[in-house]
Each structure stands twice: as structure tokens, then as C-alpha cells.
Amino acid sequence: MKKLVSAAMVVSSAASIANIAHAEDGIYYGASVGLSVLESTSEFGSTFVNTPTVGGVIGYRKDLAGGRFWSAEADVSLPVQSEMSYDWGPDACVNASPDWCRVDGLSHVRGIYGMPVGGGYDVIGSAGLVVAAGQVEDGSDIYVDTYGYGYSIGIGLQTAFSTGATGRVELIYDDVDFVDQEDYPKDLTNLAIKASYLF
């Protein structure tokens, strides 16, 4: 967490001394790093993991009047530590309760709306769809690869550099309610802070 906060401060400091260039309409892409808190719950128990993530981003931006803009964006985040565990310690992929026990990746398709707030910064809000892939326990000693989907919302700040690149830091919440294997209903949530560098 300290490393992520430090990286965000470096991005912020660099922006304050750069000549800010306005981003333009068109396709953009980039890379991201983050920190995710993933938690799965069922009526029998809960599992969790706190993990760094790495990922990629691609999107299309359209400028509007007054410095406002919207973007259509897709991304993927890969947890560094995908295995989850129970509150009392053991790994999740054991016969205890039918939760998610591993999250291999999260993908988003979302819309982003941004507007300037001064100092060369834009505030952004996002909403869209999240898809999670991984493994769940779906009965006594039955472990299956699966996927689930739900909604995603986020808020953040971004700024354009004189090089034409854009730095972004955002807070994202994902709620995966609908799971491919649903013999035992289970939920997966993700609270993440993510920093992205976009071209």
C-alpha cells in the first residue's frame, strides 16, 4: 500500500511541474498496477485475499465542450496472489464453505465521464460491467473453474502530461452477483485502488 501511495504522489508531483497538454479524441491504451481487497461470501462463511494486481487498459475518448469528456474502456486486472483464505486461516480451496476460493482475473467494460477541476486535473466517474474468472467450491469437495459477472463503479483523478501521456489514480468497487455455478449462491466483491499510465 505504501508503494502504491508513493507512486500516486510521484504522478501528482510530476503533473504539477509539467506543462499540461490536453488529451485528444481517439484510442488510448496503457498499463496499471493496483491493490485489491477481494472477499467472497455465502450463507456458510466467507473467504478473502488482499493482493497487488497488474493489468492493461484500452479505450476510446471523445472530448466534449468545456473540457469535459467521455470514454468507453475495457481493462483486465490480474491478481498477484489469486488464492483466497478463510478468516480463521486455512486456504479457501478446502471443504469448508461454498465460496470463491481463487480469483484469476477481473475484466471491466465501462463508461467514463470526466470534467476539469483545476490545476490540470480531471475528476472521473465510471460505471459498467465486471467479469471475474477463477475457481469456486460448489458442493462437498467439488471445485470448479467458473466465471461471474456484476456491476462496477469508480471515482478518480487523472492528468495529462506534456509528453501526451495521462496518469490516473482511482478507487473501484466491483460486485459479482451472478456466478456460472450457482448450486450454492455466493457473492464476490472487490475494492481496489488502481494507478494507470495511459498513452
Verbal overview:
By secondary structure, this protein is mostly beta strands. It has one helix spanning 2-17; strands spanning 26-42, 45-63, 69-79, 85-86, 100-118, 121-137, 143-160, 166-179, 187-198. An eight-stranded antiparallel barrel has the order 1-2-3-5-6-7-8-9. The longest helix is centred in the N-terminal third of the chain and has 16 residues, at 2-17.
| Unreliable sequence segments | 1-22
Total number of domains? 1
Give the number of DSSP strands: 9
CATH C-level name:
Mainly Beta
Please describe the topology of this protein.
Elements: H1 2-17, E1 26-42, E2 45-63, E3 69-79, E4 85-86, E5 100-118, E6 121-137, E7 143-160, E8 166-179, E9 187-198
Brief summary of the model shown:
This protein has 199 residues and is mainly beta. The chain has 1 helix and 9 strands; from the N terminus they run αβββββββββ.
